């Protein structure tokens, strides 16, 4: 019989339970910083805080709008497609000359919000686009976690020899883990990678 020490008894949480805080590389000092996500849907007042260099930034400062016009010209009937990005405020009116008949007209564009993100080649957080602090290659795959709590729960799951389903109502975070993390042949490599990340 499997001992309780080898049985996974983690909480029946979904992956969204770990999406309120992301540990990332600070864009100033490259140490561990935190992105606190206030709103799981849409663009809220999310914040970046680094306790090493005291850098902080709010997501609303990176909010931009793309003003778009997609309609037929009121004079010649030809299609007009215009997209003007990187506006700090919503554009109420836009004067634009039809590229076909060259008649100018004032339009009320559609304003699509988005955030400027830091560019990174590795896995990033969904708010600022900064590299996740907890990520490491395991063989040909990438093991990552949103935050320390997330990483510890992955470790608890990988360590367990007996993994029972926690609930029938939802698909939990551990059930959504990639197969390379769940595979017994990768257990040692995954656990070593987790320990290295925890010591960073």
UniProtKB/TrEMBL annotation:
Source organism superkingdom: Bacteria
Record protein name field: Replication restart DNA helicase PriA
Source organism (scientific name): Dyadobacter jiangsuensis
């Amino acid at each position: 019989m499997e001992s309780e020490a080898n049985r996974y008894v983690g909480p029946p949480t979904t992956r969204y339970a770990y999406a309120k805080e992301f540990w990332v590389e600070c864009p100033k000092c490259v140490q561990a910083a935190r992105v606190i996500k206030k709103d799981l849907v849409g663009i809220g007042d999310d914040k970046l805080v680094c306790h090493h260099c005291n850098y902080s930034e709010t997501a609303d400062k990176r909010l931009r709008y793309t003003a778009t016009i997609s309609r037929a010209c009121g004079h010649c009937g030809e299609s007009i497609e215009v997209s003007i990005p990187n506006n700090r405020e919503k554009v109420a009116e836009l004067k634009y000359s039809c590229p076909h008949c060259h008649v100018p007209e004032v339009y009320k564009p559609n304003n699509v919000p988005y955030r400027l993100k830091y560019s990174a080649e590795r896995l990033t957080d969904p708010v600022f686009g900064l590299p996740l602090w907890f990520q490491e290659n395991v063989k040909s795959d990438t093991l990552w976690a949103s935050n320390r709590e997330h990483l510890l729960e992955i470790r608890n799951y990988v360590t367990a020899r007996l993994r029972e389903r926690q609930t029938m109502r939802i698909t939990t975070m551990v059930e959504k883990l990639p197969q390379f993390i769940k595979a017994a042949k990768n257990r040692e490599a995954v656990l070593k990678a987790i320990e290295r990340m925890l010591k960073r």
